[in-house]
Structures are given as C-alpha cells and as structure tokens.
Design goal:
mainly beta; M1 Pyruvate Kinase, Domain 3; 8-stranded mixed β-sheet
Length: 150
C-alpha cells in the first residue's frame, strides 16, 4: 500500500538558506484546506498549497548524482508506492484517514535549484512531483496510507 515517507515544511520563524530550500522534517502535521501544512510560511498559495514528490523519482535523481534528501528539493511530502509521473493533473489523493489533496500541476522547480546543482532545474523538469491543493483538511503522519480517489 502506498504511504507517506516524509513530511517537511518551512516554519514561519525560519530565515533563508544560502543554498537550496530550508525545510524542517515533521513526523506529523495538520493539512489545512486551501492553505497547506499548518504554520508553513510557504502555505496559502492557491496554485501550490503543497509540493508532493514520489520516492521512486527521488531515488532515480539520487542515482543520477542530484542532491536529494528530506526537503532538499523543496518538496513538502514524499510518498512511496505511487509513481506520480503516471497520474494526471486533477487526480485526488487521500492522505491518512481524512486529508484529500488534488494534483494541480507538474512541479518543474525554480532557479533556486541551481544553488544545489548547475544542471537544475532543467535536468528535473517534470520530475519533481506535483504542486497540490489541499481539498479537505486532516491530520497526516509519516507511515499513513495514500490512496488514489477514483
């Protein structure tokens, strides 16, 4: 069964890193409808409440020498067991028992990625998962099931 393997966010009180993204790992979080992760300073963007990536793609990028790790590429969540490259925009996922997200748009990354690796973001276009909208609030935690809603 697909599961959540990591959750990260950028706390409101955090400063900015010189390289990459400043993300703090969480074991559990509250997803807020139309916002994202509670207390995430990056939340509230209607086109990107949450950035979700899959573990298979992360492993492939690691094998290609791209710096990865929890939150390194700016993702808020990594899921295992679903290859996000095989699903389409508009697909909804249930995370845990209550939360529902909608895959809005493939995430290509921004120029900030060049601070990690000069090949980025070009080398990762279409491979960084999805920008998502939180449709229904709910608690989530690492290990929670992920289900595609038909």
């Amino acid at each position: 069964m697909p599961t959540i393997v990591s959750i990260t966010y950028r706390p409101e009180e955090h400063g900015r890193l010189e390289k990459g993204y400043d993300r703090v790992p969480l074991q559990k979080a509250m997803l807020i409808s139309e916002y994202g992760i509670e207390h995430d300073c990056k939340g509230g963007n209607p086109q990107r409440n949450l950035n979700v990536m899959d573990a298979l793609t992360q492993s492939e990028l690691t094998a290609e020498g791209i710096p990865t790790g929890v939150g390194v590429l700016g993702e808020n969540m990594i899921i295992d067991g679903i290859d996000l490259r095989t699903v389409i925009e508009g697909t909804r996922l249930r995370l845990g028992a209550e939360a529902i997200i909608e895959l809005i748009k493939l995430r290509n990354g921004c120029q900030q990625l060049t601070t990690l690796d000069a090949r980025l973001p070009e080398h990762t276009r279409g491979r960084l998962g999805y920008m998502c909208r939180v449709v229904q609030s709910g608690p989530v935690q690492v290990g929670d099931p992920v289900e595609i809603i038909p």
